[in-house]
Amino acid sequence: MKKAIVIGSRESKLAVIQSQMVISYLEEKRPDLELKLLTMKTTGDKILDQTLDKIGGKGLFVKELDKALLDKKSDVSVHSLKDMPMQIPKELPIIGFSKREDPRDVLILPKGRKQLDFKDPIGCSSRRRMLQLKELFPKAQFQSIRGNVLTRLEKLDHGKYGALILAAAGMKRLGLEERISRYFTIEEILPAPGQGILALQGREGEDYSYLDDFLDQESAYAAIAERAFVKELDGGCSSPTAAYAQVTGDRIFLTGLYYNEESKKYYKGSMEDKVENAKILGIRLAECLGGKKDGHR
Question: Which residues are catalytic?
Answer without folding.
Answer: 83
